[in-house]
């Protein structure tokens, strides 16, 4: 993006758009990807590729087809092509988070597989050629004994691929797994939920400038809170939590999170409270925040990216 002033881009599930904001002031610049452009129906992961085009994982929610990955002009937001087709070999059924490695391999967390029965079927972590979209295969998760429902991905400072894993059969259960992105082999369970960390239904995960790993976590029940959990980035040791709401109050939760200018953590809020649709900007040391984008512009904000976000590590 050169030396131009940066922007923040957020996928809005409420109207199937990507909206653009000034990265410093939060001022709404306009709708970057218009409603349904290129078949956008359920935007999830957002990244800019190595030549400056925007990639969006698209779930095709409630449509009789697989998900796909769509490509848009990084300057204008105009639809360019379906990078990963919904009908190609290896298409994702329910794509969520995506990252793009330095070697131009696109990793897609495919939450679950298509099912003919009412019980959800485990998903896959899929790899594609980031330039032309060819399917390269799935990562081998046979070393993991739990149900594999991957939600989001990030490449860590150690070069490994970190994956948040949801367990629909036990929503209070959750994991962060590590894979070798070169061999596509399972490495280990880096974090597992327990009574100390209370990792529930994890999705968005990102490493901070402090080297720690930040993960979204959802409340267990009405006596709990929605929160962001912080883990030591090298060992996975639980450090602290940042509550997003209060017990007994309106819910305020986040699907995805991202660090941006000045080392602040940007958190799009959904829930049932008055700040639904806002974006908070956190100082992670103190846990305090200001409202970066006020409610009213975004309906259901999920994933986000800055123009200067690294597409693999998600670092700013």
Please give a structural write-up.
It is a single chain. The protein has 316 residues and is mainly beta. It has a single domain (7-306), classed as Methylamine Dehydrogenase, Chain H (7 Propeller). Helices cover 0% and strands 44% of the residues. The chain has no helices and 26 strands. A hairpin with a 5-residue loop joins strand 21 (258-259) and strand 22 (265-268).
Helix fraction, binned, reads under 10%
CATH architecture: 7 Propeller
Proportion of beta-strand residues: 35-45%
Please list the strands of the largest sheet in the order they lie side by side: 3-2-1-26
Mean pLDDT: 96
What is CATH's topology name?
Methylamine Dehydrogenase, Chain H
The tally of helices reads 0
Structure described in brief:
By secondary structure, the chain is mostly beta strands. Helix content is 0%, strand content 44%. It has strands spanning 7-12, 17-22, 28-33, 43-48, 54-58, 68-72, 79-84, 95-100, 105-113, 121-129, 135-138, 149-155, 161-166, 174-180, 185-192, 205-207, 213-217, 227-231, 238-243, 252-253, 258-259, 265-268, 270-271, 279-282, 289-293, 301-306.
């Amino acid at each position: 993006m050169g030396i131009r002033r940066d922007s923040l881009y957020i996928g809005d599930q409420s109207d199937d758009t990507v909206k653009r904001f000034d990265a410093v002031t939060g001022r709404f610049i306009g709708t970057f990807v218009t409603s349904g452009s290129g078949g956008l129906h359920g935007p999830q992961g957002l990244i800019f590729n190595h030549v400056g085009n925007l990639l969006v994982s698209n779930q095709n929610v409630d449509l009789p087809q697989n998900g796909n990955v769509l490509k848009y002009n990084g300057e204008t937001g105009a639809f360019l092509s379906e990078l990963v087709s919904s009908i190609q070999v290896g298409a994702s059924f329910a794509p969520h988070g995506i990252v793009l490695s330095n070697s131009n391999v696109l990793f897609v967390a495919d939450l679950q597989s298509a099912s003919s029965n009412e019980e959800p079927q485990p998903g896959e972590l899929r790899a594609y050629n980031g330039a032309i979209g060819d399917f390269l295969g799935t990562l081998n998760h046979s070393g993991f004994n739990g149900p594999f429902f991957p939600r989001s991905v990030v490449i860590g400072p150690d070069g490994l691929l970190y994956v948040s894993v949801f367990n629909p059969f036990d929503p209070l259960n959750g994991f962060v797994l590590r894979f070798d992105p070169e061999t596509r082999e399972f490495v280990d369970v880096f974090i597992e939920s327990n009574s100390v960390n209370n990792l529930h239904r994890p999705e968005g995960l990102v490493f901070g400038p402090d080297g720690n790993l930040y993960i979204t976590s959802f409340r267990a029940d009405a006596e709990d809170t929605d929160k962001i959990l912080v883990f030591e980035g090298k060992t996975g040791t639980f450090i602290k939590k940042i509550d997003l709401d209060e017990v007994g109050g309106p819910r305020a939760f986040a699907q995805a999170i991202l660090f941006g200018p000045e080392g602040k953590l940007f958190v799009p809020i959904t829930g049932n409270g008055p700040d639904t649709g806002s974006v908070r900007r956190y100082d992670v040391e103190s846990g305090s925040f200001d409202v970066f984008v006020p409610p009213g512009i975004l309906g259901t904000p999920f994933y986000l990216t800055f123009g200067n976000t690294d597409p693999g590590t998600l670092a700013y």
